[in-house]
Every structure is written in C-alpha cells, then in structure tokens.
Amino acid sequence: MADPSLADPSPIDPSLAPGEPPAIELSGLRFAHPGQRVPLAIDTLSIAAGSRTAVIGPSGSGKTTLLHLIAGILVPTAGVVRVAGTEISCQPEGVRRRLRLERIGLVFQEFELLEHLTVRENIALPFVIDRSLLKGAALKNIALDRIDPLATRLGIGEYLDRRPRQLSHGERQRVAIARALVVGPQLLLADEPTGNLDPATGTEVLDSLFEEAARFGTTVVMVTHDHSLLDRLDRTIDLADHRESAA
C-alpha cells in the first residue's frame, strides 16, 4: 500500500499564505565575468511567490547569469540574493548546494540528462545525490508514490525504463521538468526550456511545466528569447535595463 506521507506535496494556493516572503529578493546586485566591461546591475528586484516571470534581453545581457546567481551557482560581486527569505549569497558552497537541492528546481535548454540512467533514475537523481531528501523512505517507495505519478501526468509514464537517447527532444525536456519538480521545490528556474523544440512541442512542454508548477505553488522564473510566450507569464524583466555603463 502506498504511504500517503510520500505522495506528491498537496497543491498550494499562494493567496492562502499571508505574510509569505517574496520568492526572490535582489538588492544592490552586481556581477561581471572576468574581462566583462559591462556588469549585470540590479539595484532592487522582488518576485512574488507563486508567480511566473520571464527574463528577456539580448545575447550577453546576463540572463543565464541571473538564474545562476539566484540558484547560488554563482556568487555576486556585491549585493544580496534572498530565496524565500533566506539569504544565499553569503552562504558557503555546501550550504548553497543543499538549498538548491531542497528548494530550487533547474531546467536547462540542453536537458542535462545522464544517458547511462533510465528515465526513472534521472528523475530520482536529487534523492540519490542527497539521501536526506528521502526523509527515511526507501527510494522504491518514492518512485511508486511520487516519481511515477509525476511522470504519468507529464506524459512520459510509459518511458520510465527507457534511456534518454530513446526519447524525442520534447520527451527529454519533460524528463528534465520532472526531475526539477520531483522534490516539490519552492522555485523553478528554467533556461530556454523550449529553445530546442519545435513550436507545437514547445507549447505542449510549457503547458506541462506551468500545470505542474501551479499544482504545488512553485514560483517560475524562465529565460526566453521567444516573445510570443510573454503573455503566458505574469511579468517580464528585460535585462537590457539592468546593465551598468562601461567605464
């Protein structure tokens, strides 16, 4: 019998959480890669919990860099990054890594799946990397109670025992979305999630991403070059407006 404590987290209505801190808060943020003359500069930015935000801007404007700063993959030169009220920019790498595993789902344009693992094993990867996410449960129970239902809702339930190379691009991206959402993260960061997909498949994948994120009240921040998608999000941030002038 399935253990109800291992099932998908209950859907969340963000409006039922008065006083909830913003999903993301940036203050005095500055960052530049070595040799970069025009750094990313965001004085203040707040993104509401449960919202969908698009990040746009020309190539080189810092869209992926911003996602990496929010995820704690990069550390700002100056300023503060808070996720769900927790300042992550001042934390050591080990703490930032754990926060990513527990609170942040990542979806990449290139899928970043491990070809030697099955679809089910790819989705389960966060639990393998950090066994404490299992909360004492057996991985096979997590698979039955959480991974398999999520995969079914995303339309990849019949492919759980296949390898990524046996899937289409759209199916691979659905696997990546399942892996990002399986722990029930507070925040989903998606970097061009439809960039390698044809328009029809991209629409289907985005529908699945938004549906699953809404199911758990997960905040979505998505980098995109496709301006036709912007009306599907609550807000658009143009990084062309957040660059310091070259010296």
What would you note in describing this structure?
There is one protein chain. The chain has 247 residues and is an alpha/beta fold. It has a domain at 50-61 and 93-241: Rossmann fold, CATH 3.40.50. 30% of the residues lie in helices and 19% in strands. It contains seven helices and nine strands. The protein has helices at 63-71, 93-103, 119-123, 125-129, 139-153, 169-181, 199-215; strands at 24-31, 40-47, 52-56, 78-83, 86-87, 104-107, 187-191, 219-223, 235-238. It has a five-stranded parallel β-sheet, with helices on both faces. Strand 7 (187-191), helix 7 (199-215) and strand 8 form a beta-alpha-beta unit. Helix 6 (169-181) runs parallel beside helix 7 (199-215). The longest helix has 17 residues, at 199-215. The protein is globular, with a radius of gyration of 18 Å. The protein starts with 23 loop residues before the first strand and ends in a 9-residue tail after the last strand. The relative contact order is 0.20. Residues 1-18 have low confidence and may be disordered.
The CATH level-2 architecture of the domain at 50-61 and 93-241 is identified as 3-Layer(aba) Sandwich
What is the third-level CATH name, the topology of the domain at 50-61 and 93-241?
Rossmann fold
Instruction: Name the CATH superfamily classification of the domain at 50-61 and 93-241.
Output: P-loop containing nucleotide triphosphate hydrolases
Please state the structural category. Answer: alpha/beta
Instruction: Give the proportion of residues in helices.
Output: 25-40%
The major beta sheet can be summarized as: 5 strands, parallel
How many helices? 7
